[in-house]
Inverse folding.
């Protein structure tokens, strides 16, 4: 029963169909991440696209998981946010 | 005009194949004008997600015979408001009126939006899927066309229905950046269960459906709600929470959804079901005070792109469909007069002002501000107290009731300071008077 209703976000994302673009449509200005205390993008993103490695001081952007909701572009002013190319990206079947 | 421009020119281009866009396009086509509907996804609805309700009045206005062939999951025959408490108890208020049974229905956007576009194509709309509009072409202060990744296309009027993030309205300077407090992030899980199990658990007859809202519990103190809608053989369970609250309270949206799913009331409903799709989308909830400029020379903005959502009644798809229709009608009128200036297109705003859309948004113009400011009370403290009251009221344990009620009343004032209660009352009165005035 547990597997039928996965709790981990990575497993939830497995239920979604994507047509992955070959380049990222999310381009954060990484020079701003160092001064950013909250790293809000790593919290509010419903697809856990952003993760921050404290040791390497580096933000990883897994754009291929993006649901194109736009929450990050509203929560952070330093993300250059565009849509994936025509026909690419998420493809909801039950939205 | 150059040859390329001449060959790639139509009367109207509509950007976005959602409810607003398709309504605009079909309205223009019905007026006998040439219209192209452009969609960035591979099919209409593939980028779209919502809670789950389409309103029949709007559907009927666009497609009078929709009931015969549209992909309807279930009509909403029962409305429930469920107050959750942290302790696991619930107070449920349900409303059922057999005469209202066809007022609204649940549909899946990948099916509904697609069906609408199929109807529009039959009526002469030229549909261009897999086509992303990167920017609008503006010449001499007038929108004259669109730049796609392939070619440029021209039109007398462009109707912008590119959704909540509307990068195109932003390009024109028609809207400011949305603030996190004026937008709600929705996340949803569609959970498969057999029709029989759904009907048995929610006390529904075949074809009957429910729309339920969850208040308090995991959303305690936040500007947010949970929702549940019934599909034929699945449940749409999700939540909408202000981005500001997720940001300041540092809560991950999918973890909040897990909290909702683990509440005993919800857990029982989804038991044994299988997750078939997880999704997320933004809802523009700033209301009347945050509306963008709705038109400019050669362009109009409709639906979510124009931030037309009534968050008190969860109306959005109907606003989208009718604003699209009004934009289409305005375009036809402008073509007739061969005037595409903002002076002429202001007719669109007049139509919106005369309709329930802007009237309702005006009625509720202060609601978001008050509810977000007092969310800890209206969305947390009071739902908890109501559950506590019913706990006392319904428990027979051989103890006299008077002392329990006295304790309840004493706690009511002890757990929340008098000044807070006073402000709650003031804001509550303002809320009611703001709506009625």
């Amino acid at each position: 029963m547990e597997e039928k209703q996965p709790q981990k976000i990575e497993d939830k994302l497995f239920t979604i169909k994507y047509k992955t673009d070959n380049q990222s449509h999310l381009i954060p200005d990484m020079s701003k991440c160092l001064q950013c205390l909250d790293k809000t993008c790593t919290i509010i993103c419903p697809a856990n696209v952003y993760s921050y490695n404290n040791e390497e001081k580096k933000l990883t952007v897994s754009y291929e998981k993006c649901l194109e909701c736009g929450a990050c572009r509203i929560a952070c002013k330093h993300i250059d946010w565009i849509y994936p190319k025509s026909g690419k990206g998420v493809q909801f079947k039950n939205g | 005009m150059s040859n390329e421009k001449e060959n790639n020119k139509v009367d109207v281009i509509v950007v976005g194949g959602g409810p607003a866009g398709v309504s605009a396009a079909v309205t223009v086509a019905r007026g006998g004008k040439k219209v192209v509907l452009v969609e960035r996804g591979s099919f209409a609805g593939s980028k779209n997600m919502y809670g789950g309700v389409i309103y029949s009045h709007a559907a009927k206005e666009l497609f009078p015979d929709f009931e015969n062939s549209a992909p309807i999951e279930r009509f909403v025959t029962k409305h429930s408001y469920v107050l959750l408490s942290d302790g696991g108890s619930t107070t449920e208020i349900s409303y059922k009126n057999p005469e209202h049974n066809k007022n609204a229905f649940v549909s899946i956007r990948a099916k509904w939006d697609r069906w609408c576009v199929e109807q529009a194509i039959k009526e002469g709309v030229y549909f261009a899927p897999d086509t992303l509009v990167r920017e609008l072409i503006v010449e001499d202060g007038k929108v004259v066309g669109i730049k796609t990744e392939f070619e440029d296309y021209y039109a007398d009027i462009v109707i912008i229905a590119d959704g909540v993030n509307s990068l195109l309205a932003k390009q024109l300077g028609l809207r400011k950046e949305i603030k996190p407090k004026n937008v709600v992030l929705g996340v949803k899980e569609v959970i498969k269960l057999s029709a029989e199990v759904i009907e048995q658990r929610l006390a529904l007859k075949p074809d009957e459906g429910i729309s339920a809202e969850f208040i308090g519990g995991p959303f305690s103190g936040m500007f947010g709600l949970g929702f549940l809608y019934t599909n034929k053989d699945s449940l749409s369970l999700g939540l909408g929470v202000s981005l500001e609250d997720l940001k300041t309270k540092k809560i991950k949206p999918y973890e909040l959804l897990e909290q909702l799913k683990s509440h005993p009331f919800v857990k029982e409903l989804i038991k044994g079901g299988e997750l078939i799709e997880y999704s997320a989308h933004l809802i523009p909830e700033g209301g009347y005070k945050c509306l963008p400029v709705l038109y400019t020379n050669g362009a109009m903005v409709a639906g979510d792109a124009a931030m037309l959502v009534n968050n008190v009644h969860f109306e959005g798809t109907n606003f989208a469909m009718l604003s699209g229709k009004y934009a289409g009608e305005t375009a036809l009128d402008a073509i007739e007069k061969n005037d595409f200036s903002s002076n002429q297109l202001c007719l669109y705003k007049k139509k919106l002002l005369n309709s329930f859309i802007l009237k309702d948004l005006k009625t509720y113009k202060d609601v978001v501000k008050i509810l977000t400011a007092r969310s800890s009370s209206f969305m947390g403290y009071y739902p908890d107290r109501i559950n506590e009251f019913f706990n006392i009221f319904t428990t027979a344990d051989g103890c006299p009731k008077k002392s329990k009620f006295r304790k309840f009343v004493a706690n009511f004032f002890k757990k929340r300071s008098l000044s807070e209660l006073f402000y709650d009352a003031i804001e509550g009165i303002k809320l009611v008077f703001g709506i009625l005035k």
Q: What stands out?
A: Residues 26-88 of chain A form a domain with the Alpha-Beta Plaits fold (CATH 3.30.70.20). The first helix of chain A runs from residue 9 to 13. The radius of gyration of chain A is 14 Å. The beta strands of chain A are 17-19, 26-28, 50-53, 58-61, 79-81, 89-91.
